[in-house]
Amino acid sequence: MSEPQRQLLLDHQAVRRILARMAHEVVEQAGGIERLTLVGIHRRGVHLANWLAREIENAEGVAPATGTLDITLYRDDLMAIGPRPVVGETRLPIDGIEQRAVAIVDDVLFTGRTVRAALDELTDFGRPSRILLCVLVDRGGRELPIQADIVGKSYNIPSGDLVEVMVPEIDGQLGVALVKESR
Amino acid sequence: MNSRYAPSLGKDLLGLEQLSREQILGILDTSEPFKEISERTIKKVPLLRGKTIVNAFFENSTRTRISFEFAEKRLSADTVNFAAGGSSVSKGETLVDTARNLEAMRIDMVVIRHGSSGAPQFLAERIASNVINAGDGGHEHPTQGLLDMLTLRDHLGRLEGIKVVIVGDVLHSRVARSNIWGLRKVGAEVAVCGPKTLIPPAIEELGVTVFRRIEEAIEWGDALNVLRLQLERMKSGFIPSLREYNRIFGVTRERLERAPRDLLILHPGPMNRGVEIDSVVADGPHSVILPQVTNGVAVRMAVLYLLAGGKSESAEMARTGMES
Questions:
Q1: How many Å lie between the alpha carbon of A126 and the closest alpha carbon of chain B?
Q2: A81 — contact with chain B (CB < 8 Å)?
């Protein structure tokens, strides 16, 4: 059995360009920034949402509303996985999400189960006029009928392999790597 | 293992004596995100949907039972309350029967308050469901100890090195015991103060300082946890009179004003105003008695989250630092 192989899919520059483009797409699809709220999913989605918010502020002159969502308590596999994950902070704007265009921001879209949980959690907070899904990497392998509205980069990656998104706040760098299953 | 997991508590929460420092801090850290759920418009998450929890209160309680019930309902569990207060059922046989009956009804967790020390453990050893001790005799009241610690940490910024005085009837108090175990494990200094008749002999062996005079305790401490003086103690001759108790051990504004620093005031409730604590102190700017109640719900949600579905082996691994 060999060591897992690690391969860089996207470097710092590539991710930066992608995020700049995604920022424009989010604003376009939300129909402006007045009603846009970016909600990052713990953990890396939170930092990507902040990055997108900065990009939008640079382009539009105004920063969109942002929030964070921890979906742990809405997971469908929590009782089965054994150890209990650390629960992060859920913090939505004080004005709420009622009648807003909410863009869920996450690092990787895979089975779709995280997004299912996020949709359930968000709707417990109110009724947005629109919910968009915005992911840096769509790696395929969906187990639920869920698709993203805004995608940074799409791949078709075998289910045993791991896509690792790195953000400066947690990993010290920006990038996307593929970790191949050891065979 | 990945540090993104909270330390396991295993199957049951019986007391803080059995928990490690990491497990205690793990519960307190886990309580933080649960505080926010009670601030939402819809105060509910689907975590324990389909789980059944029995609140078996063999002894009267309002605050603790309601707090547990809020915690359970905000996590979407189905709850059944079962009060056997006042009845003179003896522990042994009745609890075995209770255990068998509960298991037969396919429940998932039991929260138990009982007048006899050790009743929750007795139950935990006989059923597969998770058991949470909500106060047993003079033994422990772990969730009260945890919510006191969370409140202390919220307001003092840390637990390590802080000085906490437990004032009053330490002898009969399970709250005092859970506080002593918990606070000592996370590196706080603990003292007790009260009439000699209400301080257990050799309590120093738990690493606790004993003050005979409340003035000295107030001078020493950062926080006072004022215990309820159970009025029946007077009849049993532990103290001469309530007035005398208030005169000598009462936490009064005059006494606190002489302290070198502002002390945080905690009380597990229900209070006897004018006996162990004066109203101006209980309602004063340094009282955190109501934040304690708010934190109680968050701590109990955290405990339910960490225990639900837990098995006995995982606690052993968490204690010994093994990884699963």
A1: 9
A2: no
From chain B, the residues in CB contact with A78 under 8 A are: 47
Q: Which domain holds residue A172?
A: 5-180
Residue A88: closest C-alpha in chain B: B33
Q: What is the 3-state secondary structure (H, E, C) of B18-54?
A: CCCHHHHHHHHHHHHHHHHHCCCCCCCCCCCCCCEEE
- % pLDDT > 90, chain B: 78
Report the pLDDT value the prediction gives residue B24, as an integer from 0 to 100. Answer: 98
Helices and strands (H and E) in chain B: how many: 13, 9
CB contacts, 8 Å: A95 with chain B: none
Do residue A85 and residue B314 have CB atoms under 8 angstroms apart? no
Could you tell me if B30 lies within 8 Å of chain A, comparing CB atoms?
Answer: yes
Chain B CA closest to residue A80: B309
> Quick one: tokens of B193?
């103060």
Q: Mutate which of A69, A87, A97, A116 to test chain B, going by most B C-beta atoms within 10 A?
A: A87
Q: What are the pLDDT digits (tens) for B115-147? A: 999 999 999 998 999 999 999 999 999 999 999
pLDDT, tens digit, 9 for 90 and up, residues A104-128: 999 999 999 999 999 999 999 999 9
Q: Contact B33/A70, CB-based, under 8 Å?
A: yes
Q: How far is CA B81 from CA A52, A65, B53, B72, B234, in A?
A: 49, 43, 9, 12, 32
Q: What's the total number of domains in chain A?
A: 1
- Other CB atoms within a 10 A radius of the CB of residue B307 amount to 22
What 3-state DSSP class applies to B56? Answer: strand
Band (B87; pLDDT cuts 50, 70, 90) = very low
Mean pLDDT of the region B153-158: 98
Longest Cα–Cα distance of chain B, Å, equals 59
Q: Across the beta sheet with B208-211, what order do the strands follow?
A: B208-211, B189-193, B163-167, B223-226, B264-266
Helix, strand, coil abundance in chain B, percent, nearest 5: 45, 15, 40
For residue A143, what is the domain's CATH number?
A: 3.40.50.2020
Chain A interface, best mutation among B22, B42, B47, by max A CB count within 10 A: B47
| Residues of chain A with C-beta less than 8 angstroms from the C-beta of B314 | 82-83
How much is the ipTM here? 0.88
pLDDT higher than 70, residue B188:
yes
What is the pTM assigned to this prediction? Answer: 0.91
